[in-house]
Specification:
287 residues; alpha+beta; Thiol Ester Dehydrase, Chain A; 13-stranded antiparallel β-sheet; 13 strands
Length: 287
């Protein structure tokens, strides 16, 4: 079991402080701030603990301050509404007296209804794509050092991109990309834990998609990238331990902000969740 995966499991384990307050550990992914996927996942777990008979179908969060990775985060849940079919929760993530993240989450009792979805175009299967070690063995001499370091990083989720060319030759192109992902170990637990783990990984590479249109990489020191908000809609049941395909697009960037969308599919082509994020993409002025 990798250290990063152990950290993920620790992240998903919250400590109750009262009926509506929970605390979760933080960690530093190497950015000197708390990873956004961590607070989304932990806020979802905290909210789910107050809605035991319904499942989360959507969440919408705003990042307000960079979290301190050396401090735990407390999650304060406000039970805004309890209806027969839907529940609504507001969650404030705090460090000390400061709110670093706020999220609303809606829960729905299971029902049947209309059923349609976007199709998944033909893509390589995960077993036909190289893992990180094989990818580096094939392309390390063509990749920038920061990209090599990125793929060498200890990971909580294994990621297999369907196209490595944007890292080898970063030129402006259509802002879309796709990855097969699965945890680096087995995640046991409730549907709430499964959804929280998906929320955790949903922040990977999402904002990075906007940079493809400009031939840039996430490691470019000339651009500051910060997540501003994040939304997820959960559509269908899934097993987080299976391979999932994350299809990403960026339809717009303007005014130092970029908008990105994502869709998660299982190996049978079922659309299981959708994501959206707007992020800061601010040019850094050189002195």
């Amino acid at each position: 079991m990798s250290k990063a995966f152990e950290i993920l499991l620790d992240t998903l384990n919250l400590t109750p402080k009262s009926e509506l307050i929970y605390e979760g550990p933080s960690y530093d992914p190497g950015w000197n701030r708390v990873y956004g996927g961590q607070v989304i996942a932990q806020a979802l777990i905290a909210a789910s603990k107050t809605a035991p008979d319904k499942e989360c179908h959507s969440l919408h969060g705003y990042f307000m301050r960079p979290g301190d990775p050396d401090q735990a985060v407390s999650y304060h849940v406000d039970p805004v509404h309890d209806g027969r079919s839907f529940l609504t929760r507001m969650i404030h993530a705090k460090q000390g007296n400061e709110t670093i993240f706020a999220m609303s989450a809606s829960f729905h009792r299971k029902e049947t209804g209309l059923d349609h979805q976007d199709s998944l175009v033909d893509i390589p299967k995960p077993e036909d794509l190289p893992n990180a070690a094989e990818l580096l063995d094939q392309h390390s001499d063509k990749l920038p050092p920061e990209v090599v370091a990125y793929f060498l990083r200890d990971r909580s989720f294994e990621m297999r991109p369907i196209d490595i060319n944007r890292y080898i030759n970063p030129t402006p192109s259509k802002p879309e990309q796709g990855f097969w992902i699965r945890p680096s170990g087995k995640i046991d637990g409730s549907k709430a834990i499964q959804k929280a783990a998906l929320a955790f990984v949903s922040d990977f590479t999402l904002l990075d998609t906007a940079l493809i249109a400009h031939g840039k990489l996430l490691f470019d020191p000339a651009i500051m990238t910060v997540s501003l908000d994040h939304s997820i809609w959960f559509h269908r049941p899934f097993d987080i331990n299976d391979w999932l395909f994350y299809r990403l697009t960026s339809p717009n960037a303007y005014g130092a902000r970029a908008l990105c969308f994502g869709q998660f599919y299982d190996q049978n082509g079922k659309l299981i969740a959708s994501t959206a994020q707007e992020g800061l993409t601010r040019p850094v002025q050189r002195k």
